Amino acid sequence: MTTPAASEGPGGREERPDGGGGGRRGGRDPRDEVAAPGDSGLGTITTAVPARLDRLPWSRWHWMIVIGLGTVWILDGLEVTTVGNIAGRLSEDGSGLDITSAQVTGLAAALYVAGACSGALFFGWLTDRFGRKKLFMVTLAVYLAATAMTGLSFSAWWFFLFRFLTGFGIGGEYAAINSAIDELIPSKYRGRVDLIINGSYWLGAVGGALLSIVMLNTDYFPKDLGWRLTFALGVILGFVILLVRRHVPESPRWQFIHGHGDEADKLVASVEREIEDEKHEKLPQPAGEITIHERKSIGFGLIAKTVFRSYPKRAVLGLSLFVGQAFLYNAITFGFGAILTKFYDVQSGHTGYYFAVIAAGNFIGPLVLGKLFDTIGRRIMIAGTYILPGILLFLTAWLFDRGSLTANTLTACWCVVLFFASAGASSAYLTVSEVFPMETRAMAIAFFYAVGTAVGGISGPLIFADLTESGVPGDTALAFSIGAALMCAAGIVAAFLAVDAEQRSLEDIAKPLSQTAS
């Protein structure tokens, strides 16, 4: 329970010249054995760090966090879109790689998904155990190395191996980055920032779609070079992000729970001084303190018990949101090129232009709607950005089945659907990041991401492959309808189970497992 800072008596919170509240330590208390099972022999600390972080105004320091951590999704979108668009080129004679287009979009894509699921779980566990900063450096390094090796592929098995490892790195990024962002961004801005950062994937997708048009043009680059240079460009951009990311600090919230309370206090104090110098005004007093029983690690058993026994409704919510958005995106994007070429005779080399349009809609959605998640609220916005695009996709399926759409109008329909759906999909990551206790945050993100990605990324293509490639309008309309139905179902679940987390501290939304009674 959070107690007001003003209520502290003698020997309580240490007053700081900058107005922040430091931490105070307590010794071992037999009652702590009950309050914090499984600890590693550490004591307790009373701290105002969460309140101090949440009351910070937006500043240059926060922009550094966003750029250092969030821009990697642009790389992910760039890289994934590029691979999809170069599938045809890789299968051509003279590409330098003996592989078929079906292997690139089938087996290689499945391995990428499997790698992402595995990486999310593996690095998610390490992130909660060893810290956000160590892992978001490691995961980006893994991602960059695997991407570079993909560009050097000389055989199909090499390409498959490094597609898996690329996914392994990006899966770890989802866990490490989302947990760090939500713990560093003030509660007033957390929703919109999280949505825009996750939505920036599609900014990269726009670049990837347009880049592939240039890089695959044999007037500029030979068949065996252009596709390799696209991976090289991604690596160069990634190194720039890595240089910025070195300056992103560890999460103070992670620090004070894991026995580094003094470091957390010093870090927040330095940020407070920096922001006061920037704004030329004193910061207000923090709202209160919490008392934490420090611990080095938390076992899987306690994490599973917390997520599924203590918060069963939130677990259902998280699964529903991830599965719903995964199926909708597979319904639209799986076989995207095939739909345009089979039904509208669009040349395969021109599908990138159409994809760039719907990718732009995907990015603009969270950019425009993100603030509403912090003002109108999570419940209304999450439910709305799931149900509305589901209804619109049902309408698109009906028009498509009737033959009422052209390539341009179908793309326009997709663009509108995904304008709303992208904000909804991004809110799935926001939701599972903020509605579970801090000690389980990275693992919760990893678990729900892995399950949703596995269901949508494996069963989705299996279901939609024949439907979108049969050449029968009714089959493709059925694929749209399946995605729409699951999206609407997830929205209905959100209407009943979503947590009103807007502008609330993470510790208020879900009490830390390590928090003791005040």
Blueprint of the fold:
Blueprint: E1 3-4, E2 24-26, H1 32-35, E3 44-47, H2 49-54, H3 60-70, H4 72-90, H5 101-130, H6 132-151, H7 156-184, H8 190-199, H9 201-215, H10 226-245, H11 252-257, H12 261-279, E4 288-293, H13 300-310, H14 312-333, H15 336-344, H16 351-375, H17 378-402, H18 407-434, H19 441-469, H20 473-497, H21 506-509
Antiparallel strand pairs: 1-4, 2-3, 3-4
What is the N-to-C succession of helices and strands?
A: EEHEHHHHHHHHHHHEHHHHHHHHH
The multimeric state of the shown protein is: single chain
Shape call: globular
The portion of residues assigned to helices is: over 70%
Sheet with the most strands?
4 strands, antiparallel
Number of beta-strand segments: 4
Strands of the widest sheet, in order across it, are 1-4-3-2
The DSSP helix count reads 21
Kindly provide the radius of gyration, computed on alpha-carbon positions and rounded to a whole number of angstroms: 24 Å
What structural class do helix, strand and pairing data support? mainly alpha
Distance between the termini: 6 Å
**Parts with pLDDT < 50 across at least 5 consecutive residues:** 1-21, 26-41
Q: Per DSSP, what share of the residues sits in E-state strands of 2 or more residues?
A: under 5%
Mean pLDDT across residues: 81
